[in-house]
Amino acid sequence: MPTKDEKDRIELLQGTLDLLILRTLRLGPAHGHAVAKAIELNSGDVLQVEQGSLYPALHRLIKRGWISAEEGTSENNRRAKFYRLTAKGRQQLAVETSKWDKLAGAIARILRPVEQEGKP
Length: 120
Fold this sequence. Notes:
By secondary structure, this protein is of the alpha+beta class. The chain has helices at residues 4-8, 14-25, 32-42, 51-63, 87-111; strands at residues 30-31, 67-73, 79-85. Strand 2 and strand 3 form a beta hairpin. Helix 2 crosses helix 5 (87-111).
């Protein structure tokens, strides 16, 4: 049975996860687990990124040239793949952020329409 915290978490749409990964890597290179943890922490533990979603997204972003990967050693001395935002990824982050702002604004207008003067 899910806990209250698990019930409060929200699943991410594919494009949203890509945006959040790009934004997280803007702060610097990170391995996959660190990316997922950063998204969780920065969302106040509302968003949870499952490995089954994270790693396909990271591979997709590498294929698009938006991030790169290199082998390294994690903070607990384990081999890990570190992901880094590319110049192309920085440009795409700006594009995706703009799209997100437009989408969020449109949804907000539908959910909370401003009452027109004289109309209920």
